[in-house]
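Blinded run. Sample ID left blank on purpose so nobody reads anything into the name before looking at the predicted structure. Input follows.
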Amino acid sequence: MDRTTLKTLSQKALSYSLALTLATCPIAGSSQVLAAPAAPASSYAETAHVQAPVKYQINARLDETTMRIQGSESVTYRNLSKDTLQEIVFHTFADANRSTATQTSMFERNNEEIRKENPQKKPEDFLGGIDIRSASVNGQSAEFTNSNQTLTVHLKQGLKPGESVTVQIGFDVKLPYGMQRLSYYKDIVNGAHWFPAASVYNESKHQWDKAPYSKTFETDYYDISDFEVHLNVPDSYQILMPGTLTTQEAAGEPGRKRLTR
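Blinded prediction complete.
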């Protein structure tokens, strides 16, 4: 399979590979954690034999009292291009919630109504964002910038074609109140774009995709990726998320559980 086909399949099958919804009360008709249906079987069947160029290992914890997600991820990126890369770029679309000017416009009317219903909420409660605590490359501290919804991690040594590198990132996400792709309201937490996601490198243009999240329609796309995710949440929370989930008690934290995908 060539890179063009690989990219097309990734756009169709994996745009929401780690979007999730958390409910603070049991979902009607359910007594267990639910997993949303995965992408169409045909897409996975066609790509199953392809080694994913990006692999994620993510550990995250939801603090339900402050509505923040504290997380760390280890991302192994394989250079499929013919160029030597000097940096690895990630989308930080959670930063679209830094300002109403960059938040998705389709939810403006809903948020106006929510503000009227909740006059105690301040304007900043409807905003959020992602802070990058740290970045390292193959275990060594690395320089990085996070600007305009783009995290750029600089490599001390160029990544040649066919080579792989592992980037470790520590991050904190503030969830906005109201309605957005990433938000919380009443008993629901929506979790799209909550972690730094590896951008796509355009070999023909010799550049990374650094476009910010669109205010009006879906524009994000990614390379095919493998995920291993560990999410720590309160025991009472129900989760809907692509893939198969397993659950166990969170060690040393009564009343919480650890979900693995």
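Unblinding after everyone has recorded impressions. The longest strand covers residues 68-78.
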